[in-house]
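As described in the Methods, two query proteins were run sequentially through the folding procedure within a single session, without resetting any intermediate state between them. The first query and its resulting structure tokens are shown here.
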Amino acid sequence: MGSETLSEIPDASGGCQCGAVRFRVKGQLGSASICHCRMCQKAFGNYYAPLVSVEEGTLEWTRGTRKLFRSSNHVERGFCADCGTPLTYEAPDGIALSIAAFDQPQEIVPVVQWGLEGELPYLDQLSTLPAHTTEADPESIEFVRTLVSYQHPDHDTETWPK
């Protein structure tokens, strides 16, 4: 995970998509990174895993309990058993949380990349693809306009679901 730079967000909260599992980090976040290794790709179902390290004593689980999967002899990965959201990477050197699981993920900027041997060859070309907003697709505009989200909001709630 490394310790290049600390993320500048004190007292950050987050959780899974359905709201069954929530957390709060009291104090400073650690180093933010992305990992391209194949294990992280599979664990996140994505091109890479965006992670930020936290000190064990600063992480508090405020709702629910994450389920753990031992992905190797050294690592466990935490996720929500209800909706499947990836939440943690837990190794002997510490714990890291999924950046996208935070309520304000845009404030956590990765400072280093790991596992470049697994980087997908087209990743650097993604920014050159045509880009559109969700509502710009005329074939799905009615679908988007009538969509009702059951996703937990990006802030703590006393109870969930409402």
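Immediately afterward, the second query was submitted; its sequence and tokens are:
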Amino acid sequence: MLKPMSHDAGTPVARPIDPGVRIGHVHLKVADLDRALAFYCGVLGFELMQRYGAQAAFVSAGGYHHHIGLNTWESQGGSPPPPGTTGLYHVAILYPTRAALADALYRLAEAGIPLQGASDHGVSEALYLSDPDGNGIELYVDRPEDQWPRTPDGELQMVTRRLDLQDLLASRNP
């Protein structure tokens, strides 16, 4: 029988999830599949792994079956959800190195895609934007865990500071 979870602000009753669990992929509803592919493949550089006509496509980095599924099953010609509604806040795409994140910033600038924000969180550096369908996207790189900011008691202390975009671009390998 399942144990109930606490809905208080306190610690959940259930035991923690296995630390090896990872978020594997995300599926996004898009209005126009070709437009979405132009952004995810053409700008960000994901590879098209498989396409199902005009209704769905799967893209990845490094040949994985898919990191992002794009589909028009319920959204062909649709519009983004209005502000003040529930749903996905953003998809976070983890880059392996600061130079790779800098290359993503360069690609966005070359394509004329504006950032909505850029933050240094102490644990990571992040770029925030929306895809052509209004889905929130975070492109980020983690710092090594031994560099994460901590309180005197050793607890994690994330921050939000302005990210120096020129310094980030300077780390790009052309």
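The longest strand covers residues 124-130. We note this only descriptively and draw no conclusion about the first query from it.
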